[in-house]
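Q: What changes when zinc ion is included in the input?
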Amino acid sequence: MFSLPSFPKLLVIAAIIAVVWYFMRRAKVAGTDQGDSQQNRAGTAKGPAQKPVEDMVQCKSCGAYFPAKSGCSCGHSAN
Ligand SMILES: [Zn+2]
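A: The predicted holo structure follows.
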């Protein structure tokens, strides 16, 4: 016949479950941390902080501001 496990047995089973759950949670957290840091690095690389600042110059022809490396939309170049 099926008999209820004794209290010490239940305690051991609970301890095993707790240990397994603890390590599973730790592994999950470690994986999440790695993913987060990788995502953060990728996000920083794509973020506006890493975007090179372009010097804006005023067009001598039409007065509009445009990046110094490129020309004005009116066709006038920076140099
Ligand atoms: Zn212009």
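Observations recorded in class: Residues 1-47 form one domain.
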